[in-house]
Amino acid sequence: GAFSRRELAEAGWKAMQARHPAVLSGLSPVYAQFEGGYRLQVGGFPARGGAASLCARIQDAGQPCFVAAAN
Hints:
Elements: E1 2-3, H1 6-19, H2 21-24, E2 29-34, E3 37-42, H3 48-60
Antiparallel strand pairs: 1-3, 2-3
């Protein structure tokens, strides 16, 4: 998601962890700053396939998700 302030992105991550603990277990957030605020991302995948697999699980749990290239 995109948030206007970092603390809102951090709160978004905590809310997602509470809603989807099994899907997000062991993962860490990345707060990517852009001109309008912060994007909440999960990173560190060695290959796009791993990110796509996680994204599918997140979508199956009812949360929007898309795979983005690392900056």
